[in-house]
Design a protein that fits this description.
The longest helix has 15 residues. The chain is globular. By secondary structure, the chain is of the alpha/beta class. The chain has one domain: Alpha-Beta Complex (Spore Coat Polysaccharide Biosynthesis Protein SpsA, Chain A), CATH 3.90.550.
């Protein structure tokens, strides 16, 4: 067992109506060499099947498992992430999507590279349709380095010393070289920029825009290469009908050196603090 003391962390998993993939993702969380201190499911309006999966796994889950849900009113990833961030209990937030299988050292890698004044970005390993369907059918999380059906060879390799060497040198100024499915932040930094901009609806660019505002506020971008590995379950591409509008919002943030968004995280703190207080009183 790893006896090192790690920063307390909240793992936020965004999901929408794919309970089979979410279950696989949660199984890979259970197998982490270093566990997060809580897991929060940021559910963008899924049906009761997703809730049933969460309730079924909760009794054997090794840490607090929270389900944050709102009504399905279209693609509102920024909003549900803000709600999850607001209810999180710990100062370091690791963010993924529910269509990922995590390498067993994923959380450990992120925590080992966390530094004050910086946010982390990672990459992903794509799986083809055949491999994805097999793993979903078997509910199997073990993936070998040279497993047939995997892409992105270098993204599969876990090497802690290379991660440390590259963290402050690999595309540190490139706000397009990041993925919202594999990022980590200090909660106080997210509060500083007011979290995700909820003007972003539909697929695309909300993760780049929050990176722009963080950098403009003085928070550095660090990158995990050869660590923080996630395997992406194959699926059809999301509807991109709002992409051009979101691209315009990103351009605005870049051109105006934006730091703070007006429609963001601050809407939820009082609400979730009050709910948590009531829950704690009921438990007591």
């Amino acid at each position: 067992m790893d006896m090192k003391t790690y920063t307390k962390s909240s793992l936020i998993i965004s999901t929408y109506n794919w309970p089979e993939a979410l279950r696989l993702c949660l199984l890979s969380v259970k197998e982490q060499s270093v566990l997060p201190d809580e897991v929060i499911i940021a559910d963008d309006g899924s049906t009761e099947e997703t809730s049933a999966i969460i309730e079924a796994i909760r009794p054997t889950f090794p840490v607090r498992l929270v389900h944050i849900w709102h009504k399905d009113e279209g693609f509102q990833l920024s909003k549900i992430r803000n709600k999850a961030i607001a209810t999180s209990s710990f100062k370091y937030i690791i963010q993924i999507d529910g269509d990922l299988i995590l390498h067993k050292h994923f959380i450990k890698d992120h925590l080992n590279l966390s530094k004050p004044g910086a946010f982390m970005t990672g990459s992903r390993v794509l799986m083809n349709k055949q491999l994805s369907e097999r793993l979903l059918r078997l509910q199997k999380t073990g993936i070998q380095l040279f497993e047939p059906g995997l892409g992105n060879l270098f993204n599969r390799v876990n090497a802690a010393w290379l991660s440390r060497c590259l963290a402050d040198h690999y595309r540190t100024h490139d706000i397009f070289s990041l993925r919202g499915c594999n990022m980590a932040f200090w909660k106080e930094d997210l509060v500083r920029v007011n979290g995700y901009n909820e003007c972003f609806t539909g697929w695309g660019r909300e993760d780049n825009e929050i990176a722009v505002r963080l950098i403009n506020s003085g928070i550095r971008k660090r990158t995990i290469k050869f660590g923080g590995i996630v395997f992406h379950i194959h699926h059809q591409e999301a509807d991109r009908r709002n992409y051009q509008e979101n691209e315009g919002r990103l351009t605005y943030a870049l051109q105006n050196n934006s730091v703070y968004c007006s429609q963001g995280l601050d809407q939820y703190f009082n609400t979730f603090n009050e709910v948590e207080q009531v829950e704690n009183e009921l438990i007591a």
